[in-house]
Write a structure and sequence with these properties.
Strand order of the largest sheet: 1-2-3
Oligomer: single chain
Distance between the termini: 47 Å
Strand content: 15-25%
Number of strands: 3
Mean pLDDT: 87
Structural class: alpha+beta
Shape: globular
Order of helices and strands: HHEEHEH
Largest sheet: 3 strands, mixed
Low-confidence stretches: 1-14
């Protein structure tokens, strides 16, 4: 039986990438300090697709002083590879991130790591 490329099957040539597709792919981007993905941490403030199949991501960090933006950008590049032609992260600081932005899944993951959330 031939192998099936699930990524190709999920996104036929010429298909349009949705905001939901972007958000799902960004779950592969993990905050290096906390070990939880940026979506469930509530760090993604918005996603959209511009002309030319370019993803625009409004993202924040738990701290404006976070030195790991390069790591997150590299992970984002890998997560979106094959889904979009290019991407741009708009680093957003307002409104500031707070623990109330963490999803229920993110809270469960943090509790499993021993955090009290």
């Amino acid at each position: 039986m031939p192998e099936v490329d699930l990524d190709a099957a999920a996104k036929p040539a010429g298909s349009v990438v949705s905001d939901e597709d972007l958000t799902e792919a960004l779950k592969d981007v993990v905050d290096p300090e906390l070990g939880i993905n940026v979506v469930d941490l509530g760090l993604i403030y918005g996603v959209s697709i511009e002309e030319g199949n370019t993803a625009i991501i409004d993202m924040t960090l738990t701290s404006a002083a976070c030195p790991l933006t390069d790591v997150i950008e590299d992970q984002t590049r890998m997560a979106l590879d094959g889904l979009v032609n290019d991407f741009r992260i708009n680093w957003v600081w307002m409104p500031p991130w707070g623990p109330e932005k963490i999803t229920d899944d993110g809270r469960e993951q943090l509790r499993a790591l021993g955090f009290n959330v």
